[in-house]
Design goal:
With 94 residues, the protein is mainly alpha-helical. The protein has three helices and two strands; from the N terminus they run H-H-H-E-E. It has a two-stranded antiparallel sheet with strand order 1-2.
């Protein structure tokens, strides 16, 4: 799922912001759907070769925004109301 992300360490945005932006775009573009489980932190770290804190920070951003539901030991899931957030992000619902 995250194999296609391009991390650019020269950008002004931190790596965690780049990751959160990428995952957000997957949600808004319907590439992942409400209720879908995301890979765990270790899997994400391995896929994009970043550290634990970077992944945790990226997921925390999306959880704060309401795109993800994170439960310790349960996993990370796309929020059931994630698509309703499209309006707040100025994205046309298709």
């Amino acid at each position: 799922m995250l194999e296609d992300i391009k991390i650019d360490r020269k950008l002004r945005d931190t790596v965690s912001i780049q990751i959160s932006n990428y995952i957000r775009s997957l949600i808004l573009d319907h590439k992942v759907k409400p209720g879908d489980r995301l890979p765990n932190t270790t899997e994400i770290m391995a896929q994009i070769r970043v550290g634990t804190n970077t992944v945790v920070d990226a997921l925390a951003i999306l959880q704060e925004e309401g795109f993800l539901d994170v439960g310790q030991g349960r996993g990370t899931f796309v929020s059931e109301h994630a698509l309703s957030l499209k309006m707040a992000w100025g994205v046309n619902i298709v």
